[in-house]
Design brief:
The chain has 516 residues and is an all-alpha fold. The chain has 22 helices and no strands. Helix 5 runs parallel beside helix 8.
């Protein structure tokens, strides 16, 4: 419904403005922590203008930690081997828009190119976050089939626990938009559009290669559905059952588009690894000239610089930089992060990990008849009706159509726990999966509240007022999110988790303090 969609968009915009103001105030009042991590190096001969200083004063709280890598790549390219951990699409888009911004005012010299990059990075993420929220709402309506839950989940996504990373100079917003748009398309059919979206998502973040699982599942579900329909038709009306039609449907709707989509999800990863190989392993005779100030920074920080002797990964078969970089620069690997000193980071990640894994366990138990068939065949085709949404709410679990999303979220949670710097689990999961806001919407909703059927008629006041009260619909700021009384401990804890991480995360991140 457009009125509800507009409410979510406006709410999402206000949350971004709030983060911007909060990071500015905190960055102004609290001294920055010296983290000793990688820094985006600017030319020492660079002379900032007055507006450059103002923009730095306003925006630097959003350019921390990995954001330094992204903006360095957008500015200087992949000059250090450590930069290759960050995939190229986001910094490439930042570079393109920065060039446009700089070109528009170059004659007046209002700002330098460094400020153009900062402005480009922040505003791209603002736009991508609003688009991601929109795509998330569409996906929620399509999967949850409940106007109220979809609306509430959209509002919760706008204040998700990793919110600051969706506004900072990170690739989370772009990845979320591409992923949710892709999942929306997959629910309809596999096509050239899903091919493009999965390719772009895989060029944004390495974990987006797992989107191939959604494509594979969609293809398998089509094959299973076509097969069971053919068997039933052959049993009931043999003369109408045509094997050739079934095979054609499977080839045209599942196998061929599925194959192209899976290839498109994998190709960006290997193309980027080829780029790393040809640039850092001295495969080509041409060696780009790295400015002296970057060379000096690299030498003083013991970084491998473009043109240096190749690292050991260059002699691996195949020569893939990604796993070597993750292990040697970020200490990623099986149980590598399981140390006593990392307990605080495990504590930071525990809420999202526990929410996903416990909910997955409950989901399997509640929907076992559906899960044991991997959800490949709609139980309605087997004469097994869908459980009512009210019953789903009473048991505080998601409807069975969320099976593949639960598996994906659980896979991300398990992988983050065993192989990664575990504190990144929060932003990893929230930028790639819709499950946590969906669960939050379920857990903060009264168990006896009846489902609200989908409607595209904005004049349907009955449906609108079942979702949002009349005064809130007329207000640009008020929503049900902070007005409804929470009737369970789980609901209260979820809301505290979302709001607490939203606020504390912004405060800590903006001052270069460790966060998720």
């Amino acid at each position: 419904m457009q009125k509800l969609r507009k409410k979510i968009r406006v709410f999402a915009l206000y949350t971004r403005l709030f983060i911007f103001i909060l990071q500015f105030v905190c960055n102004l009042l609290i001294p920055d922590h010296e983290s000793g991590t990688f820094t985006w190096i600017q030319d020492p001969d660079h002379k900032p203008t007055v507006l450059d200083k103002i923009l730095s004063f306003l925006l630097d709280g959003l350019i921390r930690w990995d954001g330094q890598h992204f903006l360095h790549v957008a500015n200087h390219g992949y000059t250090f081997e450590t930069n290759t951990a960050f995939f190229p699409l986001y910094p490439l888009i930042v570079r393109i828009f920065a060039n446009l911004i700089y070109w528009m005012q170059e004659e007046y010299a209002i700002i330098t190119f460094y400020s153009a990059i900062k402005v480009s990075a922040i505003f791209i993420n603002l736009g991508c976050f609003l688009l991601a929220t929109d795509a998330f709402y569409d996906l929620s309506r399509r999967v949850l089939k409940d106007e109220y839950l979809a609306y509430k989940a959209g509002l919760l996504f706008a204040i998700n626990p990793a919110s600051v990373f969706f506004s900072a100079a990170y690739s989370e917003s772009l990845n979320a938009y591409l992923t949710f748009a892709l999942l929306n398309r997959i629910t309809k059919s596999l096509s050239a559009k899903t091919c493009i979206l999965t390719c772009l998502a895989s060029a944004t973040r390495s974990n987006s290669i797992l989107n191939a699982g959604f494509i594979l599942y969609s293809s398998l579900k089509t094959v299973a559905t076509e097969t069971i329909l053919y068997i039933r038709l052959k049993k009931n009306c043999k003369e109408k059952a045509e094997l050739s039609t079934t095979i054609a449907n499977i080839l045209g709707d599942a196998i061929i588009p599925g194959l192209f989509n899976i290839i498109s999800s994998i190709v960006p990863f290997f193309l980027f690894q080829w780029f790393c190989f040809t640039n850092f392993c001295r495969i080509t005779k041409y060696t780009p000239v790295v400015p002296d100030f970057l060379v000096n920074y690299g030498r003083s920080n013991l970084l491998k610089i473009l043109g240096d002797d190749p690292s050991e990964w260059c002699s691996h078969d195949p020569p893939i930089a990604y796993f070597y970089i993750q292990k040697n620069y970020w200490n990623n690997g099986f149980l590598s992060y399981w140390e006593v000193k990392q307990l605080p980071n495990f504590g930071l990640a525990m809420p999202v990990l526990a929410t996903v894994l416990i909910s997955t366990y409950n989901f399997i138990g509640f929907h076992w008849d559906y899960v044991k068939r991997l959800g490949l065949v709609d139980n309605n085709l087997l004469g097994m009706p869908r459980r009512p949404i009210l019953a789903v709410r009473q048991y505080r679990t998601l409807p069975r159509e969320c099976f593949v999303y639960m598996v994906h979220a659980a896979a991300l949670a398990i992988f983050a726990t065993l192989f990664m710097n575990v504190q990144v689990a929060t932003r990893l999961i929230l930028s790639a999966s819709p499950v946590v806001p969906w669960l939050a919407a379920i857990l903060t909703t009264h168990a006896d509240k009846p489902p609200v059927p989908l409607s595209d008629d904005d004049n349907n006041k009955e449906v609108l007022h079942k979702v949002e009260c009349k005064s809130n619909l007329e207000s640009s700021t008020d929503t049900i999110l902070f007005q409804e009384k929470l009737d369970t401990e789980a609901g209260r804890w979820i809301m505290m988790y979302f709001l607490g991480y939203f606020l504390i995360g912004t405060i800590l991140f903006s001052n270069n303090l460790p966060w998720t």
